[in-house]
Each structure stands twice: as C-alpha cells, then as structure tokens.
Amino acid sequence: MPEGHVYILGSRTGTLYTGVTSRFDQRLFEHKNGIKSTFASKYHCNRLLLHERFGDIRSAIAREKEIKGWTRTKKLALIIQQNPDFKDLAAQYGWQILSPHQNIADQK
C-alpha cells in the first residue's frame, strides 16, 4: 500500500484547495505549473500551505474527506496552527513554479 499525502493549497486571493495523492512530488509539480487540476488552476491555488503525510493512502483519503467537510474557518485554523505565516511550504521541498521549458529534474 503506497503512502498518502493530504495537502491544502491556497491562492494569493485566499481560495483554498484540499487534495490527496500518493505521488506528492509529481502532484505538487502539477499544481505549481497548472497541470491536471481544473479548480486549482482556475483559481491559481499553487501555494502549499499545509502538508500531512500518512503511512498508507487509505488513511490520507479519510483525512482529506474529513478536512473537506470542514468550514473554511476550521481549515484556516489548521493552517495557522502548522503554518502561522502562510508561507509557501513548497520551498521546503525545493519546488517553485517552473517555466514550460524546464523539467522536473532541474528542480531537485
């Protein structure tokens, strides 16, 4: 069973997006570059505000469903608890928005 990751992305205007994946690096790359995510791309949700790692994907899916059922206020409280300055945590993973001419290997 693969590990799972739950994350919350935000836009500069305050829109939040909650997601789950078993391939965090690839998914973060996709979000940072507006690939394969209609909602996140449309609302420019490309700042990683929260990341939780789980030993298996089933636990991550359950957590994502839990968070998605929360109010915006409760989601913001969770983010503030773990990331009070609302920093883009993607920088911790060495990610930034890439140009279309760069590849994943250039980022790491």
Automatic annotation (TrEMBL):
It comes from the Bacteria. Keywords: Endonuclease, Hydrolase, Nuclease. The keyword Hydrolase applies. This is Endonuclease. It comes from Tunturiibacter gelidiferens.
